[in-house]
Specification:
Layout (H helix, E strand, L loop, with lengths): L22 H14 L7 E5 L5 H12 L11 E7 L6 H13 L4 H11 L3 E2 L2 E2 L12 H26 L10 E7 L10 H15 L5 E8 L3 H4 L11 E4 L5 H13 L5 E2 L1 H7 L7 H14 L4 E2 L1 H18 L13 H10 L8 H8 L8 H8 L2 E3 L6 E3 L2 H16 L1
Parallel strand pairs: 1-6, 1-7, 2-5, 5-6, 8-9
Antiparallel strand pairs: 3-4, 10-11
Helix pairs in contact: 1-2, 3-5, 4-5, 5-6, 8-10, 10-11, 11-15, 12-15
Length: 408
């Protein structure tokens, strides 16, 4: 039997039709964007660990924000979406983002931009002057370059809003949405929050052009770097942290994919029984869903299919992601026993004393726990001293592995 087209693709972004969960975060952003079209500016930072679904959610927001959906605030934004390559400067990122917006403007608007902006806008494209925040120069020159760069962005955005936003002309939009994905890749990210705060404040409070929104997407550990030196810049953004999915949203993700395949049946008790093996981690759920469709040969996903899919998913996670942190073969050592216990803790951080008592062993024997902390496999909270695994993704890989051992 030829397997149908597989709707689950762990190596690609989830399509808007198969997106599941994240309803609260999505509606929160869309509701504020509906106010942006009235000039009430709002910007967001979407953050979380690798594979948690940040880009998928951002692209869903991008899709809805230009869809004119009567059920979701009827939004019609001019959108510029850019994924940063490692080592890119903030200057080149902003040039690309603003140039993307010009692609949807009529020639008459482009001519006005050229007349107003002069050297900033040549031959239909933006080109900003030299800029670098990490130059080996004195602080005064750095401040002057920041101010010059900020003024260029403010001038460009002010004129873009004037050219693209309005309620009278058919070609005009509700506002401008500027989405920057993978912000952790920006070379001069440190302290960039200060520039964004200044851009936002000038556009909104001075120029009265609040018809725009920044949507920044990146790893959680890059957020402090972005705001370094200017904690007040946090007030310019709504910070949205993505965590693992609860079971009901995880089940929605899988069933949406199953329902894409004509006449496919699936065993609901098995879905309820095994759904938590992925730990609510979107990437792990995509792997599991993909394996279930590939294994099925009778258009009925049964308990046996689940058993084999869990084994295959465990092998994929182990070989591609975590072989350097955890030994998935042979008898578990004390290191693996510690990580197993943390993986099965249902999201609860554990004290060292509690961990030792539960295992009935000295967790410092052969330097086991200190080594796990040093390698990053285990995190220790600096305030409470409680322990947890370094990521939910890692946790789900171990849970898959333990489920496989249990079946064997």
């Amino acid at each position: 039997m030829n397997n149908p087209s597989n709707p689950f693709n762990p190596n690609s972004i989830v399509t808007s039709t198969l997106f599941a969960g994240r309803g609260q975060q999505t509606l929160s952003v869309l509701k504020k964007l509906s106010n942006v079209r009235e000039g009430q500016h709002a910007s967001f930072i979407l953050h979380g660990e690798r594979g948690i679904g940040k880009t998928a959610l951002a692209k869903l927001i991008r899709h809805i924000s230009s869809s004119k959906s009567s059920e979701l605030f009827n939004l019609n934004f001019a959108i510029s979406y850019y994924s940063v390559e490692k080592g890119q400067s903030l200057k080149t990122v902003m040039e690309s983002l603003l140039n993307n917006i010009t692609d949807v403007l009529p020639d008459s608007s482009l001519k006005k931009l050229s007349d107003r902006l002069g050297g900033l806008f040549k031959k239909g494209k933006f080109s900003f002057g030299a800029f670098g925040m990490n130059l080996n120069v004195d602080k005064r020159e750095v401040r002057e370059q920041k101010q010059f760069f900020k003024d260029q962005i403010v001038s460009s955005l002010t004129n873009l809003v004037q050219s693209s936003v309005g309620k009278d002309d058919d070609y005009k939009f509700d506002g401008i949405l500027i989405a920057i994905d993978e912000i952790h890749n920006i070379q001069d990210l440190e302290g960039a929050g200060q520039i964004f705060r200044s851009i936002i404040n000038t556009l909104v409070d001075v120029n009265e052009k609040g018809f725009f929104s920044f949507l920044l997407i990146g790893y959680s550990d890059s957020i402090d770097k972005f705001f370094k030196g200017d904690p007040s810049a946090r007030r310019s953004f709504d910070l949205l942290h993505l965590d693992v999915m609860p079971d009901d949203e995880a089940k929605e993700l899988l069933t949406k994919g199953f329902n894409e395949i004509k006449d496919l049946k699936y065993d609901m008790p098995s879905l309820d029984k095994y759904i938590n093996v992925a730990g609510g981690y979107p990437h792990s759920l995509q792997i599991l869903g993909h394996q279930l469709i590939e294994i099925d040969n009778d258009n009925n996903i049964s308990n046996e299919d689940w058993n084999q899919a869990i084994v295959n998913s465990a092998k994929e996670l182990q070989s591609k992601d975590f072989s350097d942190l955890y030994s998935f073969a042979g008898k578990p050592t004390l290191r693996e026993e510690i990580m197993n216990h943390l993986a099965l803790a249902n999201g609860v951080a554990i004290t060292k004393t509690s961990l030792g008592k539960s295992l009935g062993k000295n967790i410092y024997q052969k330097n086991a726990l200190p080594q796990l902390i040093q390698t990053g496999a285990v995190k220790e909270d600096v305030n409470s001293g409680k322990l947890s695994l370094h990521s939910e993704f890692f946790k789900s890989a171990i849970r898959f592995h333990l489920k496989t051992l249990e079946k064997n």
